[in-house]
Amino acid sequence: MRDLLPFLRLYRQHWLSLSLGLLLALVTLVAGMGLLSLSGWFLSAAAVAGLAIASRDTFNYMTPAGGVRFFSIIRTASRWGERVVSHDATFRVLTRLRVWFWQKLSPLQTSALAGFRQADLLNRLVADIDAMDHVYLRLITPIGAALLSCAGLVFFLSFFDSQLALTLGAILLLGMIALPLVFYFAGRKPGQALIAEKSSLRTRLVDYLDGQAELQMFAAAPKALDELQQAEQALIRAQARMARVSGLANASVQLLSGWTLTLMLWLAGHGVGGALPDPITALMVFATLASFEALLPLAGAFQHLSTSLTSARRLNEILQEAKAPDWGDEQQPAHDGSLRITDLHFAYPGNPQPVLRGCSLRLQAGEKLALLGQTGCGKSTLMGLLTREWNPQAGEILLGGKPLTSYSEAALRTSFSVVSQRVHLFAATLRDNLKLAAPEADDARLIKVLEQVGLGTLLEDDSGLEDDAGLDAWLGDGGRPLSGGERRRIGIARALLHDAPLWLLDEPTEGLDSQTEREIMALLFRLGAERTLLLISHRLIGLEQMDRIALMEEGQIRLCAPHAELLADDYYRSLHQRLAPI
After folding, report:
1. Residues 260 and 348 in one domain
2. In this structure, are 307 and 364 located in the same domain?
3. Which of 19, 280, 286, 559 is spaced 20 to 30 A from 126 at the CA atom?
4. Are residues 317 and 343 in the same domain?
5. Is 438 domain-assigned?
């Protein structure tokens, strides 16, 4: 249960709606008990009154009938209200849990999450947090409502016969203790297996979808699909085992209900409270039957407790193992975009082969520098060190004349903008996607930036975007209606809105045709004229406009000079002849 404590603390933020849901669940159970008990007594009393001529005309049929209708209406209304309130409260709690968990993940470096696959992280963020709904819907609410309603029922029955009331109360208490314990242990391994198989299937499915190009290229798609189907069958088997436990739990409650009903009928058959058998006997029997409506969800609640505990444990693994980097105390962002990289050494965890071997580079404020090199030479690794996704094993990075590690997270993120080849667009409006870079920006500024990057057509009615036009246009998941060039332009628009002195351009034109690539490069040079630009690329379009070009080989800067001077180098000249656009 210790694993659930960090998540239970967040429930206090929604205590009012959660308490209201519990109250409505209690009212539903009490109304159900009252309905069945009163109905049993009313039918029996009416039958007895009908047999006697003296009481047939004097028996009050209206008040009990009104009570039955009252309990029926209250039970229906409270059941509906409980479903609405409790599920709304649960969704709010899950939303808060997901935001809270994301806030814990977002400051983490890539190195802190290196031991977790992206598909597994996604599964934990979605499926494992969803499993937390069992805690409130199937554990807290049923237990609280069952204890209070059964205690109230026993107290009510004690006015008629204390011995029968205590007998029923003892059986209910025993059932509330024994059944949950039995079915918690019975459902523990199936619940753990269910979470594990769900995670395995989701991870394999994401890998299968993401790796379609490679799978098709190497003719490995049939094998991957077969493994995916095997994972699906394993999940079905785990679900079947859990279903059998659920069936056994329900059968056990029904069996206990039948035995208790028989016992109470036998004990009350000779009369209740020392009196001769009368309609109160029926009230006792029907009240016993109604009491097990409260007991029925408890076995299933603890059966699924292992699922929630396993999910909480998986979430805590990330929070405990993934530690946030040590940010500095400098709250002010860099006043300029100057960079000084001195003797950087870096190797990925678990890989003894170093990626950077004494890499050194200097970039003046306002300078435009291109970093070229073959795949695997360390360009992207250097970018990861600049953004503090990783920390170097040796060497120093100065940004604006101050060590990179001296900046707080907010100050560092404010000091640079990253424009990459993968511009992620969320399933939201154009406005929402732009305001990620500047939440305080008004519509006028957003429109101006869109026009600056050549996306003014997106504001028109015939732009081709879904739903409304303008800033309210819906982009869809990944920006499906947009072309690759338009997505890159939105990335540049975000950089403009962020308004940082340093732009880190990580192959921003990769995958584009030559014409679009030229347009994007011209746009970057024009809009970034007053900013420091570090362009990482293996292409040569527009590089003659850079102040300097650095050639990286095997984790080191081999040459760094203007384009005209580098043409004197045989390696760069041959590279330029092979890769220069026609």
Report:
1. no
2. no
3. 19
4. no
5. no
CA distance 254 to 579: 77
Q: 138 and 145 in contact (C-beta within 8 Å)? A: no
Q: Are residues 178 and 109 in the same domain?
A: yes
Which residues make beta-bridge pairs with 396? 342
Spatial distance between the Cα atoms of 549 and 138, rounded to a whole number of angstroms: 63
Q: For position 345, what pLDDT does the model report?
A: 92
The stretches in the chain having pLDDT less than 70 are 1, 3, 51-58, 109-112, 114-115, 300, 303, 321-325, 461-469, 539-540, 577-582
On whether residue 514 sits in a domain, the answer given is yes
pLDDT at 1: 63
User: Which stretches of 54-164 are assigned E, i.e. beta strand?
Assistant: none
Q: Are residues 198 and 237 in the same domain?
A: yes
Any idea what DSSP says for residue 125? Answer: I
Residues 118 and 216 in one domain: yes
Write the pLDDT tens digit of every residue in 211-242: 888 888 888 889 989 999 999 999 999 999 98
The reported pLDDT for the residue numbered 312 is: 81
Task: Note the pLDDT tens digit of each residue in 487-506.
Answer: 888 888 888 888 889 989 88
**What is the 8-class DSSP label of residue 330?**
B
Computed over its alpha carbons, how large is the radius of gyration of the chain?
34
Stretch (H or E) spanning 284 = helix 279-303
Q: H helices of 158-220, where?
A: 162-210, 212-217
CA dihedral 443, 445, 449, 451 (to 10 degrees): 70
In terms of Cα–Cα distance, which of 178, 466, 402 is closest to 302?
A: 178
Residue-level pLDDT at 462: 53
User: Does one domain contain both 120 and 212?
Assistant: yes
Q: How far is the first Cα of the chain from the last one, in angstroms, to the nearest whole number?
A: 67
Closest by CA to 145, choosing from 291, 358, 341, is 291
What is the bridge-based pairing of β-strands 548-553 and 368-372?
A: parallel
AA letter at 277:
P
Looking at the structure of the chain, the number of domains it has is 2
What domain range includes position 223? Answer: 2-321
Residues 302 and 371 in one domain: no
Alpha carbons 246 and 236: distance in angstroms, whole number? 15
Helix then strand then coil, in percent of the chain rounded to 5, is 65, 10, 25
Q: For the CA atoms of 518, 524, 526, 530, what is the dihedral angle to 10 degrees?
A: -150
Q: Dihedral of CA 102/106/108/109: which sign?
A: positive
Question: Number of helices (H) and strands (E), helices first, in the chain?
Answer: 21, 10
Name the residue among 132, 140, 135, 180 with its Cα closest to residue 295: 180
Which residues touch 225 (CB under 8 Å, ≥6 apart)? 208
- Domain containing residue 411: CATH number: 3.40.50.300
Among 295, 321, 347, residue at a domain's last position:
321
pLDDT at site 57:
63
Euclidean distance between CA atoms 105 and 387, whole angstroms: 16
| Alpha-carbon gap, residue 412 to 334, rounded angstroms | 8
